[in-house]
Amino acid sequence: MKRFFSLLLALFAVVQFTSAQNNSKDPAAQKVLDAMSKKYQAMNAFKVNFTQTLESPSAKVKENMTGDITVAGNKFRLAVAGQEVINNGSTIWTFMKDVNEVTVSDYDPEETEMTPSQIYNLYKKGYKYVYAEEAKEGGEAVHVIDLSPEDRDNQVYKVRLHISKKDHSLKSWKMFRKNGNRYTYTVKKFTPNPPVTASTFAFDKSKYKGVKVVDLR
């Protein structure tokens, strides 16, 4: 789960990006990205229902799973593959349904490379980007923008974004890894400004009968 979660967060972290180096900026791409950035930053919170497809040519594997994530500021709640990860900005709960166990730990942003709550900041450095082409997705016209990390040791060598020409929303993104694996995330439903409260981003033990708590704080 930790590996999958890291991949998911890495993908969310590139939703809005500008590179720190001028020579890595494509003006056409930046114009699209700035419009998308403005759209998402104007929201107090949002929820995304997504489908993830893993393709591994070497292992001849193609797997699909669905999930959803709710983000508000530096808080988030992710549900995928029978697991939940909840962050209230200071504490992280990771609940594993199959063993009915929750791990509790302190949240340290300095130790976390990428999180959904940082999606509007992390992409601002460490990536180059270019406007690749215009295309169609689900009958809708989209901008196709490619990101590449400046760090050559990064196991991800490209992330391809499909951004709606109509409303600047992110329709899907695909991550290319050096081992040949491909991860595609498709937004099935997007909900802007869903109702959220403090309880949205907290683990309520009373709702998980018999749950084992492993407190690492």
From TrEMBL:
It holds the Pfam family LolA. InterPro entries: LolA/LolB/LppX, OM_lipoprot_carrier_LolA-like. SUPFAM superfamilies: Prokaryotic lipoproteins and lipoprotein localization factors. This is Outer membrane lipoprotein-sorting protein. Keywords: Lipoprotein, Signal. Residues 1-20 form the signal peptide.
